[in-house]
Amino acid sequence: MQVDRPIRVGLSDKNPLIQAALKQLLSEDSRFNLVHVASGCEDFLNNVHAEPIDVGVIGWVIGPCDGRYILDHVSSMENPPRIIVYTGDESKIVPSQVMIHGGAAFVSKSEQPAVLLDAIAGVAAGQMIFPYLNIRSIYDNPLSSLTRREMEVLSDLAAGRTNKQIARDLAVSLNTVKFHVRNLYQKLGVNSRGQAIALYLKS
Q1: What is the pTM of this model?
Q2: Which domain holds residue 163?
Q3: DSSP run (H or E) holding 174
């Protein structure tokens, strides 16, 4: 991604205080142009479709969905923005989840603000930025066998959408959705929606 202009950034965080702090932080750095801010997953995705960005900075727990949902849906776009997950979630598995779901970087909210700003610039320049990860665990994750569309369908299932709703949202037939669901069940070695969702949420 060659960026000869300010880097176009979009934000999504459920906390208004974090939103305000990031707005201020980005406005004071000439490297960046804050394009839009959202409080939830769907609003962020709608914003990205309406006004493309270079880099998205999102929380991990956003509600009613989470960072996985955004990552899975962004990855299916024609020219997807690169996504940084910026979170206070200290779970050791979250960075690997971010990578598995296609994120470009993980930054903890316990870091100094400059770390996030440098990460945005680095990701726009083509870097991936993560703490140390056991790569073997990522390759061993069953989700790594899913296609982008299967991952998108699975994230919709986890968000509580029915097959009909998924078909409408993805502009495909109901039979196509059922085909993807059967395939992902087979790849994950599960027999039900509940089992697939449980595996998704811990992977």
Answers
A1: 0.78
A2: 141-202
A3: helix 174-188
